[in-house]
Design a protein that fits this description.
With about 450 residues, the protein is α/β, with parallel strands linked by helices. The protein folds into 3 domains: about 45 residues, no CATH class; about 210 residues, Rossmann fold (3-Layer(aba) Sandwich), CATH 3.40.50.300; about 170 residues, 2-Layer Sandwich (Ribosomal Protein S5, domain 2). The protein has 13 helices and 23 strands. Strands 8-7-9-10-6-11-12-13-14 form a 9-stranded mixed β-sheet, sandwiched between helices. A 7-stranded mixed β-sheet has the order 17-18-16-15-19-22-23. Strands 2-1-3 form a 3-stranded antiparallel β-sheet. The termini are far apart. It binds thymidine-5'-diphosphate and magnesium ion (MG).
């Protein structure tokens, strides 16, 4: 243990908020009961200011942009198109990437598969696991496929050993699985605590910048709050990816929430199979498989995830309520939006929805919160209410305002092209998008609408 002044502080396990006393609710992220007591060494915290030399070799002198040379800045191809897109083209040299997600969602599997692809390109990769034994990793690797010898494995939790190994081996890519198991002697609190996780990330950040190795950190999201979550380190790393999905469903979504090298909100879709994760290159097709035929209350909407249009089925079940207060429920959509749209329909179209229960479901377990799905939701509600099915080949998008007007949305052309690719024949869209779209639809019939009444008349 390094000498220094030891002080007791309280950290929020969810967001890393620091406080000198215990609090029931975190002022930073408003979660309850997440504060834990930790002993920190103020001396080591002060001694950690040497990152500037790693970031800039100019010894503190300001330089102009033209004086900076870009070399070796090429991106490493992971051979996963879905992952490359989320990363902004590939793995940037010297970058620190956080891969967060619930335990068991497939983070280790994904990263081991990335290791496999890199090792077949003879890129030196080091996989450091603090969770599994070498034999366990081997067992997983056998399910995934063949590896070459440019992948090296290490089972270690001691941060100083990890640091030394990275310095000695000088790999191009390092995987740390997981950050919550790493332990530094410099910090007195237990592994997984906020100060340990921060210290480990700090050391890895310095390594990534000085040695120009790309480091991936795995961070578990935990509901119980006994270990520090990945949100604690989001501000320190270059890129934050979250691996999401229902553990019981087979598909997984890799979402970029922060990226210093590309656009955020990009998603990559994977399917978990027996032999590991497989890319889903056409997620719209995947999401629409198993759609019921001629069912009332069902329509396909086009939502945008990053730069990518995604066709998803929206279902609404409307039935007469048996209680005084009708029940409204959504899965994957915003409940407030549903209430608002139902009020718009009641007022502007005179539908008696106040006596109805309403359930809205986004098929496939995806969460949509883009206003562009409003028009689809309105049509699904009316279709469910009147019990009349919307034709199979109709797709709709548009934002609905309080007076029932349909407002234009961004990237209408991309949405139409995606629908055309999957064989949709009719698209209902805002009149305000007429200019941008022009003849993007090709064979498709485009119905421009000003308000929800027009849209219903069109059907
Ligand atoms: P894992 O990568 O260990 O999750 P994490 O590192 O995020 O905790 O994923 C484990 C799950 O994936 C486990 O439930 C089994 C499943 N799995 C497959 O279905 N196929 C496979 O080829 C592999 C390796 C795992
Ligand atoms: Mg794992």
């Amino acid at each position: 243990m390094a000498k220094g002044k030891l002080t007791t502080v309280y950290f929020c396990n969810s967001c890393g908020y620091e406080s000198s006393k215990w609090m029931g609710q975190c002022p930073g992220c408003h979660s309850w009961n997440t504060f834990t007591e930790e002993t920190v060494n103020r001396q080591t915290a002060k001694g950690r200011t040497s990152l500037s030399s790693a970031l800039s070799p100019s010894n503190g002198k300001p330089v102009s942009l033209s004086g900076i040379e870009l070399k070796d800045e090429d991106k490493i191809d992971t051979h996963f198109k879905e992952l490359n897109r989320v990363l902004g083209g590939g793995i940037v040299r010297g970058s620190l990437t956080l891969v967060g997600g619930d335990p068991g969602i497939g983070k280790s599997t994904l990263l081991l598969q990335v290791c496999r692809q890199l090792s077949t390109d003879n890129i030196p990769v080091l996989y450091i696991s603090g969770e599994e034994s070498l034999k366990q990793i081997k067992m997983r690797a056998e399910r995934i496929g063949e590896f070459t010898d440019s992948l090296k494995l290490l089972c270690e939790t001691d941060l100083s050993v990890v640091e030394e190994t990275i310095r000695k081996e000088k790999p191009s890519v390092v995987i740390i699985d997981s950050i919550q198991t790493m332990f530094s002697e410099e910090v007195s609190s237990a592994p997984g605590s906020v100060s340990q996780v921060r210290e480990a990330t700090w050391v890895l950040l310095k390594l990534a910048k000085t040695l120009a190795v790309s480091i991936f950190i795995v961070g578990h999201v935990t509901k119980e709050g006994t270990v520090a979550g990945p949100r604690v380190l989001e501000h320190m790393v270059d890129t934050v990816l979250y691996f999401e999905g229902d553990r019981h469903a087979s598909y997984r979504i890799l979402r970029g929430v922060k990226n210093r090298f590309g656009s955020t909100n990009e998603i990559g879709v994977f399917e978990m199979r027996n032999e590991g994760l497989i890319e889903v290159l056409n997620p719209s097709e995947y999401m629409l498989s198993g759609r019921p035929k001629d069912a009332a209350g069902s329509i396909v909407v086009c939502a945008l995830e990053g730069t990518r249009p995604l066709l998803i089925e929206l279902q609404a079940l409307i039935c007469h309520t048996n209680f005084g207060i009708p029940r409204r429920q959504t899965t994957g959509a915003d409940l407030n939006r549903l209430n608002l749209l139902m009020a718009v329909l009641e007022k502007r179209l005179g539908l008696h929805l106040g006596e109805c229960d309403a359930y809205v479901n986004v098929a496939g377990g995806i969460k949509l919160n883009e206003p562009a799905i409003d028009l689809g939701m309105v049509l699904a509600i009316v279709s469910g209410y009147k019990n009349i099915a919307i034709p199979q080949d109709v797709m709709a998008f548009g934002e609905v305002g309080l007076s029932g007007e349909v407002r234009s949305v961004s990237m209408a052309e991309a949405r139409i092209k995606e629908a055309a690719k999957l064989g949709f024949k009719t698209c209902i869209l805002p009149a305000g998008n007429r200019e941008q779209v022009k003849d993007a639809g090709g064979e498709m019939r485009l119905i421009y609408v000003e308000n929800v009444k027009d849209a219903l008349n069109a059907l």
